[in-house]
From TrEMBL, chains A, B, C:
Gene3D superfamilies: Membrane associated eicosanoid/glutathione metabolism-like domain. SUPFAM superfamilies: MAPEG domain-like (SSF161084). Conjugation of reduced glutathione to a wide number of exogenous and endogenous hydrophobic electrophiles. PANTHER family: MICROSOMAL GLUTATHIONE S-TRANSFERASE 1. Keywords: Acetylation, Endoplasmic reticulum, Membrane, Mitochondrion, Mitochondrion outer membrane, Transferase, Transmembrane, Transmembrane helix. Signal peptide: none annotated. It is found in: Endoplasmic reticulum membrane; Mitochondrion outer membrane. Homotrimer; The trimer binds only one molecule of glutathione. Belongs to the MAPEG family. This is Microsomal glutathione S-transferase 1. InterPro entries: MAPEG-like_dom_sf, Membr-assoc_MAPEG, MGST1-like.
């Protein structure tokens, strides 16, 4: 059983693949959002970008825009939370959780991250974002607890 | 033997799980530190955070604080080093190292990252941080060397 | 076959190891570039760095330098793209692609990231960078499509 933990033979691994897929795609989507708003709002960080995408210097102001900075912070928050989840999740699947527990962890984390992005992008009043953020973090820590029960230093 | 490399049947994989657990938890801890200091020092990047956590605008100064920026840089350094270690470490375990070599690599890297955080947060004089940083990087590169011996392009 | 997907017995996993090795090493190299230019240009973000590496305060200007900021942005772009590729690539290998498809995906992604770094660092005129960037992103999304065909929520 353990030998094939990280393979398609393990239904929990297939489930992990699904949720890891969703949160990685969501993280990548932030890149598209950044590129879209940089080009439409004409706000760039490199001279060669201004030269090609805003040759007439339509944007005379500073090359910082609140919307883009907000997307960038949301993207960074994904990197700080989604990547640890995907890595810890792989170890979690290898550590042999029950299907019920694994399903619960993956669903709660994934929901918390999609909700976090919605709450961040649309500036929903606090403490919503801080609560949703912590639901995600504690889900990863709960998986880490199971992983820890199987380690050998 | 190689077939079960990434499973609980492999004692080196269990060891990897333990050290990956430690460094991922340490990275996540930086998020908690950032949230804690943002709320206690009342230094925020979003209007909705100020509205809820500092309604009387106690903090009249800029929304940048040296302590928070230091934690943020330390967190970023973790993302740039811990994530590559965990990923390269997985490939390293799959490449079939000896128990002794694996144990040595995992211990040195983990110690270097905990030390790096201590040195960074408490502003220990240089060149301590640059040395501790490079110990971690070269440990990852040494694992990469073993991985490279097993690849097939 | 599937049971040993993530092991040296699977030639596609060995190939994945090779390309993951290349792009992770490339990402780590950006750290070395940052350290090198910070010390030679004497541009630092921490007081203890200035105290040890520029005791005579040779650099009287701001502690921001266009070259270092460019390397830093390129490094951040790697974190946002290379890490998702390595994670999605692992799931992709587990999902059982053909050798031809896997080889194609890994080669195109790896080439796109090395080219992206070259284009970014040497400020090659746009839209080169945005095109090379999207080749990498769509390669990861194409692997994600194969992964999705094997998941079970």
């Amino acid at each position: 059983m353990a030998a094939a933990a990280l393979s398609l033979d393990n239904p929990i691994f297939r489930m992990y693949m699904g949720y890891a897929f969703l949160v990685i795609i969501k993280t990548i989507a932030m890149s598209f959002a950044t590129v879209f708003f940089r080009i439409t709002l004409k706000v760039f960080l490199n001279q060669e970008d201004v030269a090609s995408f805003d040759p007439n210097k339509t944007n005379k102001g500073p090359q910082v825009h609140p919307t883009i900075e907000r997307i960038r912070r949301c993207h960074q928050n994904d990197l700080e939370n989604v990547i640890p989840f995907v890595l810890m999740g792989l170890l979690y699947v290898a550590s042999g959780p029950t299907t019920f527990a694994a399903s619960l962890h993956f669903r709660i984390f994934t929901a918390s991250r999609f909700l976090h992005t919605y709450v961040y992008i649309f500036s929903i009043p606090q403490p919503t974002r801080v609560l949703v953020f912590h639901v995600g973090v504690f889900t990863t820590l709960s998986m880490a607890y199971t992983v820890f029960s199987q380690v050998a230093f």
